[in-house]
Amino acid sequence: MSKDALPGLTLCNNAMLRRAARKLGQFYDDVQAPSGLKATQQGLLYQIHIGGEPAMGAIAAALVMDLSALGHTLKPLIRDGYVETFADPDDRRIKRVRLTPRGLVKLDEAMKLWQVAQQRFEDVIGKDKAARLRAALDEIAALDFDLPPAS
Amino acid sequence: MSKDALPGLTLCNNAMLRRAARKLGQFYDDVQAPSGLKATQQGLLYQIHIGGEPAMGAIAAALVMDLSALGHTLKPLIRDGYVETFADPDDRRIKRVRLTPRGLVKLDEAMKLWQVAQQRFEDVIGKDKAARLRAALDEIAALDFDLPPAS
DNA sequence: CACCAATAGTGGTATATGCCACTAAATGAA
DNA sequence: TTCATTTAGTGGCATATACCACTATTGGTG
């Protein structure tokens, strides 16, 4: 069997997803670079902002992200003074997160650039297609792969 | 706790893409774990396999990945003896990559698990929808965001 | 030939993410 | 109340990825 006959990685849903994520991530990062925030950081700040002093676990769940990964990602943002954490008074296991005033300003700044990137992407790909894509991606993020055997 | 009233990050194409990539990546990784390879590594081995001793730059281009990122990602695979590199005799700047016999065996093993993950995902999401999704993702990976140079 | 610009990779540094082992705090019995 | 269990985070380690500065080659030019 010749290698040339083998199907490319175009068939792998996961590989395609990652590849597109790299491409789009580079684009959004590029546009948002002047703010000093990566697109991921801007998204995280936004999530915290609209979350109402969310618990770390809540953020991680919303972003379908490992809790420890969230903790690591948060560190540069805390170091730079954009977010701060505090223990929930009713349950000291819970650590809540909020933006600092400085973080709020920075988020504002980054959001303006985000709009530019978002707009340009949708101009290029088409608004409808983008909406359909997001719907599909949302569905994937919500999937449950668990096999339904004994329980 | 439904904060779905606010314009969540569901609107950001990039955030949605990353989130779905995390989710799907975790699933594929999980299924492929018994092989000892991450899904990304399996994809990379596969790309090398079908590439015919590709140059590093060619791999990076195919995967829409930074060249230096590829170099770093390759290191564990070289360390574990799955791939090896050699200089192109006609152009010593170029470094070509190939699978070792051991790498080929490992790829075979991982591909069997990949099929399981791939199959299960498509069972859950629907084969048509998966195909359409891959097409959209392929399109994104091929986009050119450069502003028209107004020449 | 001598030089300079373009090309291909390397290494360092930083963020993004995941898993695992471990700690602390709350919970649910016994 | 006491103790096992569950829940929420932390820290360490490893891979994934990007950008930048730097090196080694190759090619084109005067």
From TrEMBL, chains A, B:
Molecular function in Gene Ontology: DNA binding; DNA-binding transcription factor activity
GO biological process: response to stress
Record keywords: DNA-binding, Transcription, Transcription regulation
A Pfam family that the UniProt record links to this protein: HTH_27
The HTH marR-type domain, residue ranges: 10-142
Coiled coil regions in record: none
Domain of life: Bacteria
InterPro entries referenced in this protein's UniProt entry, alphabetically: HTH_MarR-typ (IPR000835), MarR/SlyA-like (IPR039422), Tscrpt_reg_MarR-type_CS (IPR023187), WH-like_DNA-bd_sf (IPR036388), WH_DNA-bd_sf (IPR036390)
Name assigned to this protein: Transcriptional regulator, MarR family
The species this protein was found in: Mesorhizobium qingshengii
